[in-house]
Design brief:
mainly alpha
């Protein structure tokens, strides 16, 4: 998803810095709409971060990598 966002941002930046040769076609509108939606979703995921899966039950044998665990032997 990050690669698609980067590609869409690059394509929009390139298209902004050249004079338009024609009026915008539906593909260009779709690209712009996709970029805005991806930007909004990306910011939402960035802000929420670890809290996204807070309400999902995790099995007790699940290995947690965010806690420091001592040696088991």
């Amino acid at each position: 998803m990050l690669g698609l966002c980067a590609l869409a941002a690059w394509a929009l930046t390139v298209s902004m810095h050249r004079p338009p040769l024609h009026s915008a076609d539906p593909a260009e509108y779709g690209e712009a709409i996709f970029s805005v939606i991806a930007w909004g979703l990306g910011w939402a995921l960035l802000i929420e971060g670890p809290g996204l899966f807070r309400l999902i039950p995790v099995p007790p044998r699940h290995a947690r990598f965010d806690r420091q665990q001592g040696p088991t032997s």
